[in-house]
Design a protein that fits this description.
The structure holds 2 protein chains of 2 kinds. By secondary structure, chain A is mainly α. Chain A has one domain. Chain A has helices at residues 12-25, 36-58, 63-68, 70-92, 102-122, 132-138, 140-161, 169-191, 197-222. Chain B is mostly helical. Chain B is elongated, with a radius of gyration of 24 Å. The chains are: A mainly alpha, B mainly alpha. At the A-B interface, helix 1 of A face helix 2, helix 3 and helix 4 of B.
């Protein structure tokens, strides 16, 4: 080797030789991490099955009407796109050298901001102000459904991402939580008859924002296991 | 100045790493020997304290080892290698900074006994230590007062490292309980 390059640096060559000896003795075949597109597709399939099952169980009443209404459709598409982008971000953040660009992250953040702004732009009641606390209390069942629907995709994504080597586990956790619980929002929004801004924010979007924090904390533990 | 590696070299190192993923120790040795000096230079340019460089370099190689399964042989090696290296350097520097913040220079330490007088903790600690069963007390003394390593302490006590850890842990727990009891 070019050990001579390390000459003049006290102990460097020795540190290198000792460590190489140890690492080489620990050489065993490893299972390669799956390509990000494959991981994403797998997650998409699993989460689609989960969301589909919940939708069948919840039996949305007026889906046709919802899908024909422009702002409603835009909200659902933004939720879906936000979830898909967040999942891609979570997957790529666990594969060194595959991190997404700043432009990609900006688009993802823009979509999420647009999603959170939509209820105020398109669904504000003409009658007057919105009491978020009251909406939270009245939308308790929607909050529970958001958590329940998002839980399985979150676990599925967690299992998939645990095979990667995230260098920023906190962020990986946050993106994974965001992605999974946005699917919860999407499902519940398809089922829930209320398209009123206060209810949408407090009972459908607020749980996503809230659950992203514990998901990030759990991620900082779970996605750093590969280092231990 | 060392010439930068050319594309062919990167390609051959990528192939070596692919063989490493299949469990080839010789390829691994070659890979580390050839890439090592580049990484060492990378670390040296980012770590200004020369005493820290070998430790950080070691950290980088260990992280590479643990993350080797994430390298995709169909993609260039450079971005993967330097992403892992850059993050390991940042982590190691962050840890070193935290350690330095907590460290108290010896010249700032008060004279022997003054801490005891101020906090009254010295006597309490001593009493808590004395109240431990013999095995647990000896484990704590060897590790925390005499500063022996786990292996050395286990050898001196004639027990396994695992058994020593258990005894020391029980000792710490009992001392903590005794001290907390006195404080409340």
């Amino acid at each position: 080797m070019k050990k001579e390059r390390m000459k003049g640096h006290k102990g460097a060559a020795k540190v290198h030789a000792d460590l190489v000896g140890k690492l080489v003795s620990d050489t065993r075949p490893v299972r390669r991490a799956l390509a990000p597109s494959l991981q994403w597709s797998l997650w998409f399939l699993l989460s689609s099955v989960s969301v589909g099952s919940f939708l069948l169980a919840l039996r949305p009443q007026d889906m046709d009407q919802v899908l024909c209404h422009g702002p409603s459709l835009a909200f659902l598409l933004a939720a879906y796109l936000g979830s898909a982008l967040a999942a891609w971000e979570a997957i790529c953040s666990g594969l060194p050298g595959r991190q997404t660009s700043g432009a990609f992250r900006s688009i993802a953040v823009l979509v999420l901001v647009a999603l959170f702004a939509m209820p105020f732009l398109f669904f504000t009641p003409t009658s007057g102000s919105v009491d978020l606390m009251e909406c939270c209390a009245s939308g308790w069942s929607c909050i529970q459904w958001c958590c329940a629907v998002g839980f399985l995709p979150w676990v599925a994504l967690g299992v998939l991402l645990a095979r990667n080597a995230s260098l920023q586990p906190l962020w990986t956790g946050a993106w994974s939580g965001l992605s999974a619980f946005l699917l919860g929002t999407l499902t519940v929004q398809l089922h829930c008859p209320s398209w009123e801004a206060g209810h949408m924010v407090a009972a459908h979007l607020f749980p996503v924002a809230l659950l992203t924090f514990p998901a990030a904390l759990a991620g900082s533990f779970w996605f750093s296991r590969w280092r231990r | 100045m060392r010439p930068l590696p050319n594309n062919l070299q990167w390609e051959s190192w990528g192939k070596l790493l692919a063989r490493v993923q299949e469990g080839d120790p010789e390829a691994y040795r070659r890979f580390l020997d050839e890439v090592g000096p580049i990484l060492y230079g990378f670390v040296r340019r980012r770590v200004f304290n020369p005493e820290l460089v070998p430790d950080v370099y070691q950290e980088v190689l260990l992280t590479l080892h643990k993350a080797r399964h994430t390298y995709d042989p169909s993609r260039p090696l450079g971005p993967w290698l330097f992403t892992v290296a850059r993050n390991s350097v940042l982590d190691a520097l962050g840890r070193a900074r935290k350690f330095a913040e907590r460290e108290v220079p010896t010249e700032k330490l008060p004279e022997d006994g003054s801490v005891r007088e101020e906090t009254g903790l010295g006597d309490e600690l001593l009493l808590a230590l004395r109240s431990l069963p013999d095995g647990n007390r000896k484990a704590v003394e060897l590790l925390k007062i005499r500063g022996l390593t786990l292996e050395e302490a286990a050898k001196e006590m004639g027990i396994s490292v695992a058994a020593l850890k258990v005894r020391a842990h029980r000792g710490y727990a009992a001392m903590r309980k005794a001290l907390m009891g006195k404080r409340t």
